[in-house]
Amino acid sequence: MPAAQQPPRAEQCHCFLARRTARQITRFYDAHLHPVGLKITQFLTLAILNERPLAAITDLADRLDVDATAMGKMIATLERAGVVEVHRAKTDGRSRVVSMTVKGRARFEAAVPLWRGAQAAIEQANAVETKERLRLGLSIPAISPAA
What we know:
Elements: H1 14-33, H2 40-51, E1 55-56, H3 57-64, H4 68-80, E2 84-88, E3 96-100, H5 102-125, H6 131-137
Antiparallel strand pairs: 1-3, 2-3
């Protein structure tokens, strides 16, 4: 049977490979951040709050490219852990904004060297000279599903 007519295998699918790689990388970063009790998604949330001390939950969701409901659950987890506070927005009482607490800042600062270690290991595993190519290679052009 010609290759074009053979049924596709999961390992041939770019999406499958990207999703598998993403899960592996996530587990790798989570393991590095484990000593401070953060997952990579939580660390990245705190990193955004470090850049922007007050952010709307919807803005955080957009920035991390996650569903607003998932972002809300993550914020609730971080709030229970005492690392963020949720407030009503001053301009719109229906909107909620998030800020990092003193405890959150301390946890974030403790996590930064662990994150840097994970970054360095990923870069080393992918050859230092290709670090920028790695980042560029992770991009995908904007396409519509009908294209």
